[in-house]
Amino acid sequence: MTRVPPAWPAFRRRGGEASRPPLSEFARLDAAACLRRLGSSPEGLAEAEAAARRRRIGSNALAYEKNTVWPLQLFQAFANPFSALLIVLALISAATGDRQGAVLLWSMVLLSSLLRFTQEFRSGRAAEKLRAMVHLTAAVKRAGDATFRERPLDELVPGDVLRLCAGDMVPADVRLLTAKDLFVSQSALTGEAFPVEKFAAPVAGGDEELALSNLCFMGSNVVSGAATAVVLATGAQTYLGGIGRELARGRGATEFDRGVRRFGWLLVVFVGVMAPAVFLINGLARHDWLEAFLFAIAVGVGLTPEMLPMIVTATLARGAVAMSREKVIVKRLDAIQNFGAMDVLCTDKTGTLTQDRIVLKWHVDVTGQESEAVLEHAYLNSRFQTGLKNLLDVAVLEHAEVAQRLDLARAYRMVDEIPFDFERRRMSVVVEEDRDHHELICKGAVEEVLAACSSVFLHGKNEPLDAARRAQALARARAYNEDGLRAIAVAYKETPRAQTRYTVADERDLTLLGFIAFLDPPKDSAAPALRRLAERGVAVKVLSGDNEVVTRKVCRDVGLATGEVLSGAQLERLDDAALAEAAERCTVFAKLAPLQKERVVRVLRARGRVVGFLGDGINDAPALRAADLGVSVDSAVDIAKASADIILLEKSLAVLERGVVEGRRTFSNIVKYIKMAASSNFGNMFSVVGASLLLPFLPMRPLQILVQNLLYDFSQTAIPFDAVDADDVARPRRWEVGGIARFMLWFGPISSAFDYAIFAVMWFAFGARTPLAQSLFQTGWFVEGLVSQTLIVHVIRTARRPFVDSRAAWSLSAATAAVAAFGLFVPYSPIAGELGFVPLPAAYFPWLVAILVAYAMATELLKRRLRRRFGPV
User: Fold this and answer.
1) Highest mean pLDDT among 93-102, 118-127, 278-287
2) How far apart are CA 327 and CA 631, in angstroms?
């Protein structure tokens, strides 16, 4: 068994979690020293030692967010303040023999909760996405093995020796031992569009582990080349594992959660004050404490908008269906409100502002003039190289017209190739042209290609590459780099046809042709979408793992003002208070690590902003979980989709902007019901308290209150389909519990004032002032209360003039008209006696019309006054 050196116990578990030294320590060591530090060797670990380490450290598995089992999910559908209040009232109703009330309340709870459960269950579970990423095998060499063998990834331990080839996913955090032409894509971890070169030589180290060139990380993948490596960290101790641990901790309360909680407490306070007050007043006045108790329970139910859970869920579900038509899939219904409330959108750069593909932007000579010769030679180099073609080669080869122009199949033949290596940072191909001569065509990093050149092709002839022209060429390349492009130099030379073999020594005395420059171009839809989001009150901030130059260039191209750019290194030096100030001030953040993105989101939320985050990479997952609204795309890595609340079928800010509008429309309709129901119910109960003091009988029976409430709520079931004014979707919409309370306190008394008006009419005009005439009194108030509540909906559903500037949807108009008509019909129906109603005299109806007109006018005048004082109501 391999002897474990003293340094090895640093990897042991501490307090239930393993710890490890910084990976930069291993980056500074040479390969032999690194193996010794890990207690390993070039032949790998012995099987027994690997098994012992796996028992001590744990398997190569990641922390992840566990699926919610369906019974728990069903319980969570019932666990909200509204449902809890209704359940308590239902239990009290059942205990006091009010079976009809109990059944009604339970029905509301069941309908709303089951609808929510069904929608969210069908939307999909947050499955074991991180585990799905590591179900493959790795080529591992253990002591005694003649060669590398495929082993399950969860068996890997620190000290294992691996082989990496093109197409492999890196199965752990590793230190390279050998590397040949190795390019690794870390875009899922860093957001960088281009693969990065990796090599085995020791490096000086640094603060950013992802930037160390001899380390590779779990979650990245090999684009080209081959390497051997030793495992440094596995499972939860990898860079990716750190992200997994953050996700496993769960998410905090969102804006929707906080709003629901505040409104729930508002209802509890109102019910807790009004119901006991009514109980005491009626008990002391009539000495019938049982009837007083039942009446108080009815008042509590009447104050509670019992259909609110169902209306909210139905409205959210309708919004989810509407969003699906806009290429937006809602995973969590509550997220729709957060969509509408969002006032800051943090997004990555790649694929959102850009097209997420590399294109050849320029092919120029050293003076910056477009050059077909540069493009033709670059095309020949990319076409005839035999290695795995990288993204830059693919972008060059998209210019298929070059092949036709050069008559490639007939005029050119491959002769030899000088492969790329990290030290030279260039590669060459040799082709035979027209069976006349050979051309060595070289492309690569600007400085390295220039070092092999002695002349430059200018104005149709070769000129000496003197110091001035060399400086000119470097300045041209530097200008492209500063503009966010990646510049590659192209050079060539002619050689005799007799030469058949070429080596690195032949890469000299080349003629510099010019440069090819690449970029990930901005989306055409990005700039208009950013303008529309700004018009709707959503500030967009770019949180990128890419470098500052590229990020600033892209933002400038799409019309996003950059101003001060905050880098990951600068961010790390700020405390939360300073970062919160900087986060408000800055629009662009560059070179951020995943947990730094999450920190930016967190400090913005702490300042009261409702933050959405759009991302699709592994490096975006913590920020997606930390945001009020996590948005990903269907092409994202699994961990990003698992962390998101919303999935876009198209990664586009234009699609997102349409989702914002739909989210605000949905929330506007929810708030309509809350304001209308709460203010109406409050007004009715305010009337009940006064009537209890003034009348020698109950102003309305408990069953009548419940029936009136049910009919009114039924008229509101069409609210999810109601039209919404443009003003309601122009700015972010948030839970404003203070505004709801203000609405109740202003409009409730107005409603109550006209209830007192009908009280006076029934008392003085119709003589309903004794217990024998109480049924007439109760019928008159029932009809007035129900008809006024349903018709006044059209006044208070909009901040504009009703029926003139804003009309309700036909479904809401039909529902309110039907309920009002039913209310007028009930006193003359067969069930009138069971409900305690009697027919109303014809003289009642002129009074009813007068009261309704006056009520509508008073409500409209109050609405306009409040709008001038407090803004939209």
Assistant:
1) 278-287
2) 12
The beta strand positions in 166-206, using DSSP E, are: 173-185, 196-198
CA distance 319 to 321: 5
For residue 291, give Cα distances in angstroms to 96, 283, 815. Answer: 10, 8, 34
Alpha-carbon torsion (503, 509, 513, 517), positive or negative:
positive
Closest CA to 296 of 314, 312, 280: 280
Res 303: pLDDT: 65
Structure token pair of residue 816: 């309110």
Nearest CA-CA partner of 685 in 633, 745, 727? 745
User: How many Å apart are CA 853 and CA 862, to the nearest integer?
Assistant: 14
Whether 515 and 491 have beta carbons less than 8 Å apart is answered as no
- Residue 760: CB partners within 8 Å, gap ≥ 6? none
Query: What gap in Å lies between CA 245 and CA 442, rounded to an integer?
Result: 47
pLDDT for res 279 = 83
Task: Read off the pTM.
Answer: 0.67
Residue with tokens 């290596």: 421
Share of the chain above pLDDT 70, in %: 84
* Cα 127 to Cα 628, 642, 643, distances in angstroms: 21, 7, 10
Residue labelled with tokens 């202003």 = 746
Output the DSSP codes for 274-319.
HHHHHHHHHHHHH--HHHHHHHHHHHHHHHS-TTHHHHHHHHHHHH
Which residues does the annotation mark as catalytic? 348
**CB 55 within 8 Å of CB 239:** no
Distance, CA of 148 to CA of 156 (rounded, Å): 13
Tell which residue, 699, 704, 680, has the closest CA to residue 689. 699
Q: Which residues of 785-797 are buried (b: 16+ CB within 10 A; e: fewer)?
A: bbbbbbbbbbbbb
C-alpha distances in Å from residue 752, one per residue of 472, 711, 758, 768, 781: 84, 19, 10, 19, 11
Report the C-alpha gap between 470 and 467 in whole angstroms: 5
Q: What digits encode the pLDDT tens for the residues 283-312?
A: 887 777 877 777 777 676 666 666 666 677
> pLDDT of 449-477, one tens digit each?
999 999 999 888 899 999 999 999 999 98
171 and 72 Cβ atoms separated by less than 8 Å: no
136 burial level (CB within 10 Å; 0-12, 13-18, 19+):
exposed
Residue 557 sits at the vertex; the CA angle it makes with 556 and 562, to the nearest 5 degrees, is: 15
Q: How buried is 739 (Cβ within 10 angstroms: 0-12 exposed, 13-18 middle, 19+ buried)? A: middle
Helix, strand or coil for residue 568?
helix
CA distance 687 to 760: 12
Rounded Cα–Cα distance for residues 571 and 590 (Å): 10
Coil, helix or strand for 588? strand
- Whether residue 492 has pLDDT greater than 90: yes
Above 60 in pLDDT, residue 12?
no
Would you give the DSSP letter of residue 828? G
Of the ranges 21-35, 246-260, 667-681, 808-822, which is most confident? 808-822
pLDDT category of residue 235 using cuts at 50, 70 and 90: confident
H helix intervals, 168-250 = 187-190, 239-248
- The set of residues, in sequence order, having a beta carbon less than 8 Å from that of 180 and lying 6+ positions away, is 225, 226, 227, 421
Residue 725 above 50 pLDDT?
A: yes
CA distance 302 to 685: 7
Whole-angstrom distance, CA of residue 46 vs CA of residue 533: 59
Of 34, 16, 48, 535, nearest in space to 237 by CA? 16
Mean of all residue pLDDT scores within the chain: 82
- Tell me, letter by letter, the H, E, C secondary structure of 355-394: CCCCEEEEEECCCCCECHHHHHHHHHHHHHCCCCCCHHHH
**Within a 13 Å sphere around the CA of 628, how many CA atoms are in the beta-carbon half?**
28
Cα 652 from Cα 633, distance rounded (Å):
9
HSE-CB for 117 with a 13 A CA cutoff = 19
